[in-house]
Amino acid sequence: MIVIYLHLFNYFISRRVSSKMPKITFFNLPENKRQTLINEARREFSRAPLYEASIANIIKGAGIPRGSFYQYFDDKEDIYFFILGEYAKEKRIQFLQILKSYNGDLERTFLHFYNDLIKEEENYSFLRNALLNMTYETKKIFERMICSKEINEKSIEFISSIDQTKLNVTNSKELFHAIRLLMGITIHNLIHAYALKLSYEEATEIYRLEMNLLKQGLFNS
Questions:
Q1: Distance of alpha carbon 147 from alpha carbon 1, whole angstroms
Q2: The whole model's pTM is what?
Q3: Residue 62: how many CB atoms within 10 A of its CB?
Q4: Tens-of-pLDDT digits for all 221 residues of the chain?
Q5: 14: Cβ–Cβ under 8 A, 6 or more apart, which residues?
Q6: Inter-residue long-range contacts of 29-37, CB under 8 Å, 24+ positions, other chains counted
Q7: Rounded to whole angstroms, how far apart are CA atoms 169 and 190?
Q8: Rounded CA gap, 144 and 183, in Å?
């Protein structure tokens, strides 16, 4: 059942971002040219958030004419969401590796995963711009760091890797919403850390505090 819930949820949340893909001509480019274009776009989105970013800066850095850019992408939103989506895929793989290393312990996995995200230096400016100017589309891509929109071997592997004996859930629906809740806390804390420019120690202390509140239960029965 959890796979069905994941499928339905991710179908609806991904409808607005699913069309944001490069054209086939982009994938037909030599690897070095594809990577150059992506690197320059990432550099521009690290300099400025999406709404302020300039295609002119991207094509200048990549050394291509404007017409060529539009042969690969419809607009700057397309290349932006492609880059963000690829980043989310990388992090999803990393999350699963961490989960397996902790034998399915979601609490320890999320703590480790959040710590890794906060310590990232290479993607700091890119992530900060993305999170502090978050849109509906951006939020859903970040959520896909954990729950992929595709129902495939990886998503099934993710669910089966969770040690549910360490969770106070009684069915697949509750497990699904527990994962959503944990990811929501993680995204919120990342935004908070970037907005206030918190140190690593400050950011992780607040995250652990909120995770402990969740673990202990917030309300007295």
A1: 15
A2: 0.84
A3: 20
A4: 444 344 333 433 343 444 568 999 999 999 999 999 999 999 999 999 999 999 999 999 999 999 999 999 999 999 999 999 999 989 989 999 999 999 999 999 999 999 999 999 989 999 999 999 998 888 888 887 776 555 455 667 788 899 999 999 998 888 888 998 999 999 999 999 999 999 999 999 999 999 999 999 888 86
A5: 140, 144, 149
A6: 29/72, 36/62, 36/63, 37/62, 37/64, 37/69, 37/72, 37/79
A7: 26
A8: 9
- One-letter identity of residue 128: R
